[in-house]
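Tip: read the tokens left to right.
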């Protein structure tokens, strides 16, 4: 793809940014669709997020933003409107410029995670799921798991206020399914999900002890780089089935395609 004066620009904001896989997948999608567009990584520190987004809004050929750690919660307050999913999760991972110049926030982490599970043959409906991590991605995954019909969702985060706040929002969204737990509740879980950043660095501790999971329980990680996190290696060595982080991003592509109207002719 040749970048020229007519190229439409998308950015992905994060800190760190080297681990993001979205540019590879989205730029491939742009090429397949014949779109003159490019997605570029943008390393933005948390204390400069608001200033950066305010500046980016002034770029006329910037059509949208993707958002990764640690900005998914903070960016919600920088959008003009948020979707029902964002309102329930309290986090966003995509912003779209509307025809009137306003910005709409959406979140595809959760729907992408559920789509990835199903594509790999792991149906979450009726299952007992333990989610470790109630931050931006974890909150969106929690909403999508409830929408997918899980039987029980146990949410743990080391930040007690954050896990309680998420479960309060989930109770309003779909009551009676999610509970907050002081530690990872693994004993009766069919699926255990790491939605924390633990695993980005090789010296990170494990987010939970996979040996505490019942036999046959699925261990899923949302970290994409490295693909084989310490958690997944430990779980695999113990004989548990594992689910890689890349499946969540791959499961988001159809959502991005619709949200950014990539099949339509964009009028500016």
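Filled-in amino acids:
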């Amino acid at each position: 793809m040749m970048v020229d004066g007519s190229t439409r620009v998308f950015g992905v904001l994060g800190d760190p940014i080297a681990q993001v896989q979205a540019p590879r997948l989205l730029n491939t999608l742009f090429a397949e669709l014949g779109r003159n567009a490019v997605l570029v990584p943008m390393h933005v520190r948390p204390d400069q997020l608001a200033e950066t987004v305010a500046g980016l809004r002034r770029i006329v050929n910037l059509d949208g933003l993707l958002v990764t750690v640690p900005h998914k919660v903070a960016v919600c307050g920088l959008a003009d409107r948020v979707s029902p999913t964002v309102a329930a999760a309290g986090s966003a991972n995509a912003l779209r410029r509307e025809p009137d110049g306003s910005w709409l926030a959406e979140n595809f982490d959760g729907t992408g995670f559920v789509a990835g599970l199903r594509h790999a043959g792991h149906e979450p409906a009726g299952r007992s799921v333990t989610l470790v991590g109630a931050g931006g991605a974890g909150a969106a995954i929690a909403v999508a798991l409830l929408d997918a019909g899980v039987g029980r969702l146990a949410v743990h985060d080391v930040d007690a206020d954050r896990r309680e706040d998420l479960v309060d929002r989930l109770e309003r969204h779909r009551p009676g399914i999610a509970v907050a737990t002081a530690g990872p509740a693994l004993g009766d879980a069919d699926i255990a999900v790491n939605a924390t950043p633990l695993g980005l660095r090789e010296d990170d501790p494990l987010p939970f002890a996979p040996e505490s999971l019942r036999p046959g329980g699925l261990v899923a990680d949302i970290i994409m780089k490295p693909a084989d996190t310490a958690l997944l290696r430990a779980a695999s060595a113990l004989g548990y089935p594992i689910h890689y982080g890349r499946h969540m991003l791959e499961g988001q592509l159809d959502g991005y395609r619709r949200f950014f109207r990539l099949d339509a002719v964009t009028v500016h």
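The radius of gyration is 18 Å. The mean pLDDT is 95.
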